[in-house]
Design a protein that fits this description.
alpha/beta; Rossmann fold; 4-stranded parallel β-sheet; globular
């Protein structure tokens, strides 16, 4: 059974922490994902990967997701809620400082590419403070944003939340060509519908295979950082 820290009482968390647990923190965003995907897509994927890790490792406890990130590139689309790089970096630093009062190992699982730089800076500072914090970011080939990959994963997670009839191709140019335009004017400048890719080819089967692959790599990386599985639930 996957355990979420928000479902436990403080004595229960304390008992789990004494046994030794890794706290997995999903970090996502609230931002536009085209006319067909919910604003929570990045957060949903990060939370699912943490859930799958906890299902594979009994010494992992899942924290509530951080649903806001650095999403300035999606400004101009209704519903995008960005806190910017500086605020995200500070939030993660203070969150992990607090978490390490209880947990010895913290694993940040990032679901949004725009969070990468502030998260890397936060982890660097935390590790300089001798806190055992690691950052994991998914790596896969596919559309840049709200395309076949993310649409497939959301279909695998909850097809009822995908407006499949509204899926349509967006700008499909390679990142090397798009990057200067994105840096200058954000996604709105290159893609009026907010999509970078083509979600019309997405299937739940492809999405499930991608989630399986990412979860496998997340577990593998977690075991390279913390190879000795802590007692976790096995000790209860």
């Amino acid at each position: 059974m996957v355990e979420h820290v928000s479902d436990l009482t403080w004595p229960e968390v304390g008992a789990r922490a004494e046994q030794g647990v890794i706290l997995a923190v999903p970090v996502g965003s609230t931002e536009q994902h085209g006319p067909h995907l919910p604003l929570s897509t990045d957060t949903d994927i990060a939370a699912e990967l943490c859930r799958r890790l906890a299902a594979r490792r009994p010494d992992v406890l899942v924290a509530p997701a951080v649903p806001y990130g650095s999403s300035g590139e999606h400004a101009g689309f209704p519903g995008t809620l960005s806190i910017g790089q500086a605020a995200l970096e500070l939030l993660i630093v203070e969150l992990c400082r607090s978490a390490t009062d209880t947990f010895d190992q913290i694993l940040l699982v990032n679901g949004h590419g725009g969070n990468a730089e502030p998260l890397q800076r936060a982890v660097r500072l935390l590790r300089e403070e001798s806190r055992d914090v690691r950052l994991w970011m998914p790596r896969y080939h596919g559309d840049l944003h709200a395309g076949a990959a993310e649409t497939g994963m959301q279909l695998a997670l909850d097809p009822a939340r995908v407006r499949a009839d509204r899926a349509e191709p967006g700008d499909q140019r390679p990142i090397s060509e798009l990057y200067p335009l994105l840096a200058a004017g954000g996604v709105r400048a290159v893609s009026p519908n907010g999509i970078l890719g083509d979600p019309t080819t997405a299937t739940s089967e492809d999405g499930m295979r991608l989630l399986d692959s990412l979860a496998m790599h997340l577990e593998k990386d977690s075991r390279s950082w913390w190879p000795v599985e802590l007692p976790g639930r096995a000790g209860q």
